[in-house]
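Q: Give me a backbone?
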Amino acid sequence: MTGDKIIRDPIYYDIHVKSSEISLIDTLEFQRLRNIKQTGLTCMVYPSATHTRFEHSLGAMHIAGEVAKGLEGVDCNLIRISALLHDIGHPPFSHSLEIRGYNHEYYTRKIVKNLDIENYSPKEVIEVLQCKGPEGSLIGGDIDIDRIDYLLRDSYHTGVAYGSIDYNRLIRCIVLFEDSKPKLGILEKGVVAAESLLIARYQMYSSVYMHPTSRISETMLKNAAICGIEEGLFKVKDLSRMDDIDLISILRNSQGEGNKLIRMLDRRELFKNILTLKYNELSPEEKWILINLGEEDIRRIEEELSERFNTTVFLDIPPYPKISEHRITVIAGDRRYRLDEISPLAENLKWAYIRSWDVRLYSPPDRYRELRESIDSGCLREILLQFRDRYIGSPILDILKREDRIRGRGRLLSIVKDRGLSETEFLNELQKLIFSGLIREEVVKIRGIYRYDYFPLEG
């Protein structure tokens, strides 16, 4: 069609772009993504990982269109536009700077409200981005187009031999079905392709996304940006209009602690890891407290440790792995299964993924040897006890301790709803409790179907 273009891409070779999409790509808001790195400071480890949210968004649009072609009742043009815009609210350096309450999904919706979108209202696109309707299932389901593209793209640009996904087979096996709302699933013949997605995610998580040097660099960058906010150099909301260049320029021209940290990054003079607490070394209660700590709580812990050791100390608590891919619905005839019910590989990878999570303490390089030899985990554990009373409570855990065992997720959900929790809050809290090891999910097979039972474990 007149006005359409072809964009060359290293992953998919040719991406067809429609004229209505080009008008969005050419906006200032979207062009900003050219200067926002997709993987934060992973380029400190993998020099070629300088790819951006701009190309990822184009790739997500392409994958969304390919998936939508095989699904009845899905508006292909709407899902392509929604996928194109799904990351438009990211701050500089992507997820690294979701600080001080910054939420890229909120700012994405705010930006989309003011865009002129051909043939669609901003409200229609926002509803898709909020995972509503059949199109929304492609954006935020257990298997979604965002994840497929970033694994392929991040693998390519880091140069690692991971991230390989049989995505063409996976796309052909994706189906749409009705549950309480439209959901994506895969046909049984696509299980091996789905397993390739799980393997790629696990390998990329452990070797790329959680690489020690990347984590240290991004922790320094995050704290430099927080210093910039506290020094009045910019506000949190300004991150939705800034790119990587803006942020670095502001901090390099500042006079405070943020400048010091950025100059250290410029020289690759990085903080050092002085203490690692691995998943299996932490008690369930400690894990629960750690993943519930807010930004101000973490700052308070850092200040207490910094005062104790007479130097700056940073605490690095990565987000806990949510492993939603393991819950992919598999359609086998007239039956539906969760992937980790019928795939031993998926079940084992789920726990391998969880156990690769850890917590770390960093100090300036000139104090590394001294602190590395003298520090032990007791200092951090002692401080965590201060937060026990605030965070250890959980409605779900209280119910399970009273009932001992709840047979069936539906029954547990109905009891929890009576306590005032929404279904979304229930699922988030349940996932955190399972991750922490405070409760156990047991799959029970009854006459060819599976039931999920829950019971508390000793903390």
